[in-house]
UniProtKB/TrEMBL annotation:
Gene3D superfamilies the record matches: Uncharacterised protein PF16691, DUF5062
Protein name as annotated: DUF5062 domain-containing protein
Pfam families associated with the record: DUF5062 (PF16691)
Length: 78
């Protein structure tokens, strides 16, 4: 897994867009006390469920791989 140039900024964008996506869909309501890792996992699983992104094999899922996948998703947004 090759790190993207601006992966941290893309991850922040992915979290913001993922929160908007989940709340607009009516699937979730995030609380201010939710940690970034909880948001990352929920957004990742929601996007996989909705077939927006390809899933990572279950034995390879980690916080790092979910962050990377979301950063890639954010990089493809306009």
């Amino acid at each position: 897994m090759k790190k993207l140039k601006n992966e941290n900024e893309l991850l922040k964008k992915a979290i913001l867009e993922g929160v908007k996506y989940g709340e607009a869909r009516g699937a979730v309501e995030f609380e201010p006390t939710d940690s970034a890792s909880e948001k990352i996992e929920y957004i990742y699983r929601l996007l996989v469920h909705d077939k927006v992104i390809q899933p990572i094999p279950e034995d390879q899922i980690s916080q790092k791989s979910m962050k990377h996948k979301l950063a890639i998703w954010a990089s493809k947004m306009k």
